[in-house]
């Protein structure tokens, strides 16, 4: 029953009272919801989480599981984006990776080949059942092996990819070592696929271990988990795995609803799909805000990977991630900035020791140099159709951000940094030492000082 007092309060309440209509930002947000592969700025976000707050997420495995699941339309299954309090278009969000824990007990991966009669234009985005012709058909896992993924309607093999060389890997529960297993081990894992993959309850992907590949046997690999997907929501709807200049190039003139022009791709993408192995526990990412709230999303955790991800795929796993997020006001970025762990920096970009600084001052005194720069390392992410295009993109972004000429950026990267491959064919970082005065002018000094000083 509504009392007279309540009716009076309602009558005197402003119609557009934001304090009533807007949800209250939380200090810690737990995320266990996933998108269907499309990052859409029009879709409602989770949260908001407070500026300075924490996001804890149970993430799904990345590439292969979603690639075997036609109802996932983007090639990955990332978390539903999170609205960060106070983040406005033209700002940046600082994301610090507090912890990454692998929960999968096994995974499978390998080099892929698209099957031509099972998609239209793009096997990551527009899958077609070769039997009944349905687009994005629902599927079931029927048995194990390469033929296990089948259309729910007509029981035709429907997975748009096959492995040309694949492996199943058991993972040490201490998080140190992975080992590829033989045919019987792969079969054992495939028969209990979801349990071994530890896919979250709300995940809809078909587990890749159901394919039971075993071309590599007895190969040891060191585990060092990282996030292949970490970033903010693009300002136009696009498939999640295509939120980068190399994969995004598949969208240019594509024969499906997510077609882009090159100019649109360059404007709207946020390069959240990086596959840079240095995006691991302890690292910090500064990401552009191109939609209100930023829309932070997470996914595609890998157990290990060398630079380049040259096979096209690595060991996709489920896991628990803890992030801290904070807003940098009026820092308009075209793409992400990575602040790796110090041990992951190139030798030439590592912070200078007190002794090195002392020797530099001696040289300055000898040759009449009035002041030695105080510098900090920064890695600018660039993406493009090729590695050359990605390098050019990163250099251009750095020049604009730091108000330098591109030749100056190239000189500094040559003697105080390095060009490092994230993903072949088109993700790189241009790392170099940047003067403190320049970082302050660009409004990004504080998180960099916190990371390295």
From TrEMBL:
Residues 1-21 are annotated as: Disordered. Residues 1-12 have a biased composition (Basic and acidic residues). InterPro entries: FmdA_AmdA. Gene3D superfamilies: Acetamidase/Formamidase-like domains. SUPFAM superfamilies: Acetamidase/Formamidase-like. GO terms for molecular function: hydrolase activity, acting on carbon-nitrogen (but not peptide) bonds, in linear amides. This is Acetamidase. It comes from Lysinibacillus sphaericus. The lineage of its organism: Bacteria, Bacillati, Bacillota, Bacilli, Bacillales.
């Amino acid at each position: 029953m509504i009392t007279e007092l309540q009716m009076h309060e309602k009558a005197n309440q402003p119609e557009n009272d934001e304090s009533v209509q807007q949800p209250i930002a939380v200090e810690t947000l737990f995320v266990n919801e996933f998108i269907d592969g499309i990052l859409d700025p029009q879709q409602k976000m989770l949260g908001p989480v407070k500026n300075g707050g924490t996001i804890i997420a149970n993430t799904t495995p990345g590439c292969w599981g979603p690639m075997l699941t036609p109802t996932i339309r983007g090639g990955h299954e990332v978390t539903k984006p999170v609205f960060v309090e106070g983040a406005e278009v033209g700002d940046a969000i600082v994301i610090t990776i507090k912890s990454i824990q692998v929960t999968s007990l096994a995974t499978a991966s390998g080099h892929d080949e698209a099957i031509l009669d099972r998609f239209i234009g793009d096997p990551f985005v527009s899958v077609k059942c070769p039997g009944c012709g349905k687009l994005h058909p629902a599927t079931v896992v029927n048995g194990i092996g390469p033929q296990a993924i089948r259309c729910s309607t007509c029981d035709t093999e429907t997975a748009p990819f096959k492995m040309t060389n694949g492996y199943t890997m058991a993972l040490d529960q201490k998080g140190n070592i992975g080992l590829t297993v033989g045919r019987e081990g792969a079969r054992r894992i495939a028969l209990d696929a979801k349990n071994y993959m530890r896919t979250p309850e709300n995940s809809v992907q078909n587990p890749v271990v159901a394919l039971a590949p075993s071309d590599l046997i007895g190969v040891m690999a060191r585990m060092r988990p990282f996030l292949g997907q970490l970033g903010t929501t693009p300002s136009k709807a696009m498939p999640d795995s295509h939120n980068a200049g190399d994969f995004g190039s598949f969208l240019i003139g594509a024969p499906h609803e997510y077609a882009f022009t090159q100019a649109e791709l360059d404007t709207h993408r946020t390069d959240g799909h990086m596959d840079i192995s240095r995006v691991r526990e302890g690292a910090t990412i500064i990401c552009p805000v191109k939609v209100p709230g930023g829309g932070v999303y997470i996914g595609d955790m890998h157990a290990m990977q060398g630079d380049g991800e040259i096979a096209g795929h690595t060991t996709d796993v489920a896991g628990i991630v803890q992030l801290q997020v904070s807003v940098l006001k009026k820092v308009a970025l075209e793409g992400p900035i990575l602040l790796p762990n110090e041990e992951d920096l190139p030798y030439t970009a590592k912070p200078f020791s007190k002794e090195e600084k002392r020797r530099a001052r001696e040289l300055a005194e000898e040759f009449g140099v009035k002041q030695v720069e105080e510098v900090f390392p920064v890695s600018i992410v660039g993406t493009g159709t090729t590695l050359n295009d990605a390098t050019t993109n990163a250099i251009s972004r750095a020049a604009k951000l730091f108000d330098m000429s591109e030749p100056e950026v190239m000189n500094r990267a040559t003697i105080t940094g390095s060009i490092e491959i994230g993903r072949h064919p088109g993700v790189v970082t241009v790392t170099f030492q940047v003067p403190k005065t320049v970082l302050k002018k660009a409004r990004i000094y504080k998180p960099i000082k916190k990371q390295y000083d």
